[in-house]
Amino acid sequence: MSERSAATLEIRGLKAEVEGKPILQGIDLVVRQGESHAIMGPNGSGKSTLANVIMGRPGYVLTAGSVSFRGEEVTALTPDERARRGLFLAMQYPVEVPGVSVVNFLRTAYQSVKGEQVSALAFRKHMKAQMDRLGIDDAMVNRYVNQGFSGGEKKRAEILQLAVLEPAIAILDETDSGLDIDSLKTVAMGVADLIGPELGVLLITHYQRILNYITPNFVHVMIQGRIVKEGGPELARELEEKGYEGIRAELGLEEPVGAET
Length: 261
Description:
This protein has eight helices and twelve strands. The chain is an alpha/beta fold and 261 residues long. The protein has a domain at 4-92 and 169-251: P-loop containing nucleotide triphosphate hydrolases (Rossmann fold), CATH 3.40.50.300. It has a six-stranded mixed sheet, with helices on both faces. It starts with 7 loop residues before the first strand and ends in a 10-residue tail after the last helix.
């Protein structure tokens, strides 16, 4: 097994705040390359905050704990430095980049992450292999990034970016958000196809439905900025039956005073 396949994302005692408001209350989580994890929780439980803290997004302030990757503490690194280490974030709300085609955007990102120049021909061959794998046609990659894209197209473009950049660990922040049933199935099956020995996934969602297509090795329930329960795929089915209120009642958790991020 290669050195790359041993990559591990390790989060210990993580606390964070946004605009002075505490959100994460002490998260412990380990995600290894080749594993698939689902973090499930109601809106406002801190799931997206966790994703943004891992990737170093400005405005998300770590107040305690650590985030390490491949044995290196990464909390002082910029988002692009973390990406070059092999971390990837698929955003809940992908942004438009007018005037920049998907293919040019992907080539620039690929060269930045890999730290080397690559010819247009070599990159096109690599990208086309991933497009064929995911069933994406040439028309999409010749359009401007996310401009005029439907919700499903935006998420498919994110999954193509994931396939092209070949990270070791990918964080997918509510990839199912805003998708209809057909788009959800297409996007989820694309993710499921990419999961394997060279890719670990941390899938963040508050719906069980995406897990009809992606079966995680581990499920973690997050409520009020804490991971309150962990298990295997059966935990997602339990959530579907009980709901988050049932989990709150089971664990004796109080209702939050205000909304979280």
